[in-house]
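Replying to the earlier thread about multi-chain prediction with a worked example.

Input:
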Amino acid sequence: MTAALLLLILVPAIGAAACALLPKQGAAARTWAFAVSVIDLLLGVCLSAQFDWKTGTELTWFGSSFYIENLQFGLKLGCDSISLWLVLLTVLLTPLAILASFASIKDRQKEYYAWMLALLAAMNGVFVARDLLLFYIFFELTLIPMFFIIGIWGGPERRYAAGKFFLFTFAGSVFTLAGIIYIGLMAPRGFDLNAAVQFVQHNPEMARARFWLLLAFLAGFAVKVPLFPVHTWLPLAHTEAPTAGSVILAGVLLKLGTYGLLKLALPIASPDAIGLFAPYIGTLCVIGVIYGALVAWVQQDIKKLVAYSSVSHLGFCVLGLFALNTIGVQGSVLYMINHGLSTGAMFLVVGMIYERYHTRDINRLSGLARVMPKLAFFFILFTLSSIGLPGTNGFVSEFLTILGAFTSTHLGVSYGAFAALGVILGAIYMLHMAARIIWGPLKTPDHDDSHGQGDAEPATQHGSELPTDIGAREVGILVPLALCVLILGVYPNVILNSIQKPAQAITQAINPPAQAVAEAR
Amino acid sequence: MTQLALQHYLAVGAILFAIGLIGFMTRRNLIVMFLCTELMFQGVAINLIAFGRFWGNLAGQAFVIFVLVIAAAEASLALGLVVLLFRQRNTLDADAWRDLKG
Amino acid sequence: MQDLWQIQYSYLIPLLPLLGACIAGFFGARWLKGQSHWPIWIGVGASAVISISLLFSMLGLWKVAGHEKGASAGHAAAQRSVAAEAASEEPPLAYNKIFFHWITAGDPSGTNSSKFFNADAGFLFDPLTAVMLCVVTGIGFVITVFSAGYMKGEEGYFRFFAYLGLFIFAMTCLVMGNNLVMLYLGWEGVGLCSYLLIGYYYEKPSAREAAKKAFLVNRVGDFNFGLGIMLSFLAFGTITFFSGTPQHTGLLEVAQAPLTAFQQHALRWIPFLLMFGAFGKSAQFPLHVWLPDAMEGPTPVSALIHAATMVTAGVYMIARCGTLFVGNAAAMNTIAAIGCFTALMAGTIALRQFDLKKVFAYSTVSQLGFMFVAVGCLAPVAGVFHLVTHAFFKALLFLSCGVVMHAMAGELDMRKFSGLKRVLPKTRILMLIGCAALAGFPLITSGFYSKDEIVAAAWEKSRFLAALMLFAAFLTAYYSFRLYFRVFEGPEILPSPPENAHGPGHGHGQADGHDAESAHATGHHHNHEPWIMIGPLVVLAIGAIFAGFLNFPERARSLGGFLGQSPSFAQSFNVATRPNVANGRVIPPLPFGQIAAQEELELADKDFATSQHSLHRMLMIVSGLISLLGIYFAYLMHLKDRTAAERLANDFPAVTSALEHKYWIDEIYQNGIVEPLRALGRGFFAMDRIVVDGIVWLISFVPQASGFALKLTTQRGYLQGYAVTMLFGIAVILLVVFL
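Result:
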């Protein structure tokens, strides 16, 4: 019954095609998209029920009829616990993102929802692909729906943002493609992921090539993550994307980069090369952490603030990966999930504010707690998760990634210490935002004519009325995320224990025991 | 001079092709340009037939029939397009359509 | 020990208040409304009952242990080293209760280069925990009762009680946590509640800024604390305090095994990192700036969080992690020096504050300085003792302040009223008790005994330090009675009617001048002292007087002896007496609560013991006199002739200005740290747009430029042009092929 792996991709893909055939008018498209994404969520749950959490044996599915002999390319799917958690994150966030679009997406609905479902299929595909070429295809396939979602339904600068997003990530991943083709040609079993990893790890002749392969993978994944100097596409894309787009972008698409680093770059690159690069990448991460936080602090647009906070947070995530020890890698995987939950939720809340006030300017919003106590509750909760308050999920992953860097033989104490500065700075910018828009004297939304002239929103028609608090649908969107935030804060071991083995396998390949013994002396 | 040799045919074909080419490059009228491309086709067709007879097989003639059919289909399509273009700009000048410039 | 039902069900202690908080928070707005205090009363009350019965059960167990020890000490004339060994051999009065593994990461086999990290959701029960639990839940309960009277009719009544419940949850986790990360959970949790409660009147920009400031300043401390936790893990491979197993794997048991070179090196840094965390939470010098601003919160909050419990967490933490500290003389000296400096600095600032709550806020900072001096001078018992007595009398003072404020319609400026003894007779007596305890009025107040122990400990360390502490004690006596004499004695002056309280100029915007409260005050002008508010004050006043006898020095079964049973105290004594640490000095065991060792020391060294006793007696007399002197000066300046103080202040304008501006520390931080950082952020943002994006633009410029060049040359849209180009191309190909 591992066909659920295939169905996970197939159901939303067919759903997207069917969605495109639905009638243009009416709410059919959004209901359909929501139903399909919920089915996908159930499939994910089914898959995790089948998964053997104790041993962590990888589930696999191989479509032999799709096998292309000449290329040794096949429809090979599989998932271990790390992939499974990320799939669960994806299938959880997508229905919520679709639900959040119900009110905000008004035109070209069926195209929008078709693209959302296509995006879901592609994202699931990346996480379950166990064939390098297939991985790459899905990896690039995520770009196209997102390109259109930003470019059609985005803000005023959407065209430019969509183009920049596409070109940045695409330019990086071209190198990744080169690396993948090289491995596919060299490895005896072609593009099969696990076999390729085995091959490069046990073939000393590949040592030199593995150095270049690391660079090829870094070029693609670092842009996607994004690491410090190549991050400029992210704030723009986040700010211009519609709410659901930002949620998916921050929640899942950024994780494709870290997942690629974890699943491809670390196992395939040679330990020497990784050891050589780890300090540099660690430095970039630390710079990103501090830089992102400081820039976030001075933003006027709250969505941009959250976007820059992602730059800062992902710095922690990659820092944990390149700590190259089990604590760091476990913390990093947990960070991927937690960041998806809390930053995704943060974008949802910001979107809800925007729907009511039609502004995201920090100077024009104030005292929302007075009129929207429920929204304020969720806002503060997700803020706390984002700044890593113990008891919420953010703390565990932040602590473990820093601890990983701190105890790492490759990075060391100073990396951990400087990254920990991000803990202070993170609190500064998030509380700055909370203080400005949630607390303080209430400012009624001013409806000057510069915006909202064309769309006759109900809220703008009787402008003097105060915006209403979030309704049942919006509470329904936020409650699952809030529960995840708290549960993962109180019992993170549900994830940590299950990813212990794959994380250890990855780090053991990089730090061979002999080296560890030498260092222990 | 009673016997027409291969080179005479080839010369006629080449002249036809050259006339077509020069016409294509010097005239601006879309229909004339189209006629010129047809001339070039016929120049090539004469070549093919001449070679077919020279070698004594039917391949050349088969080709020419093929070319003629294609040219007819293409003529109907192209003239239709020209009519459409004329309706858009009220002119047949090829320079009116420079949208492909960088 | 583990059979105690209180330990079996110890999860109820934090969870009941949390449950109460959830009920009040989620159902309060719509259903409970004015009854929202009930879930919190029940929850906190129940956990107070459990905590107090736990304390008594542990006292019962101690009796057994103490008996054996008394018997052995009777006929033991052995060396101290032997005694120390015996002390470590006997089963300690401590038990580790683990509920589940909270965070587990790393390689359990430990063969790889990765370590194994484990933080349990577990509690450590020892005398220190029991005492702290009683302080937290007991005083917490008293204050929740008071709050129901004080906050009556406030908007967001349910919210206030939900926060209080959450606070008790976090604070109990803090004092019960069996490892550093659990401690950190409570630590940041109380910080969050402090943030929420300071910002309770969130529509006031000053409250909002104060809340943010409190959280951020604490974060600076927590950053260091977090690094300290990580360094401890790196050095010792564990973050659990006390394992209770024969392997001695806990942090408190580091003295049991020889240290590696790396561990010794780490121990040079760990105390400094942890110390900074404590400075943040307990508002010590570089990080003290948040506490005075925190008075923006409702007064019961100031009493509970910013005086009695949360701010003492730093002292608790240093006492708890004693083994990591006492071996490092530089760190201990730093703690003592910072504590002393803070005590003096805050004490002087309090002299020129006119807002009642601000006076007590600076007084709290100053008293916390005293506690830090105690732990810094190797006298953790004195620190915890002062913590307990201070919790009683400072909570009493703040709550009395709340009654005054309630009656004065939110007015807190002591220049605006005077001679309230007729209006608030009960409060006057209670405030007098509180002020006397704070001033250390000799013999009958708790503050006298606890402060005296601290001065004695300081004397052991250095005479100069003790003199400074005595001066700080003098300041304390002066400013506390300055406040008392101004507010309750002298001619009766009542503030002008409450519409003044709404005016923009009132106070510094510090008072809770909110509508509901002033309306309430004017509406029920006849009764300023309802029993729901006075009752809790009476309980606290009793504590403020009698808590001093808990550690009466001549008693064998004192607070100190009980605390000495805690592994934290016993093991840190072991560390402190190790030859390479003690460095030839005699470490007195009593400040560590090691009564048995003290008895042996006295048996072994009679002269030392008698000299210590006479010294203590002498110091008691001196500090009592100093306290009386302070009260007398206050009487002179603020009751007999109120213009005298102003005259004195006008004679030294520079000093007055420095005090009134709190030595400009806020301004220095704002302009020296915050603004440069923000400018850096702006600079980075500009860099992001110009430099980083500029480089990207440059890279994209190459294809753009070449495209532009082609556009101007060949790709011009002329059909014939393309044809010519094609022809030319074919010609070239033909030439190449045939030539």
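The CA atoms of residues 40 and 86 of chain B lie 24 Å apart.

Feel free to reuse this layout for your own posts.
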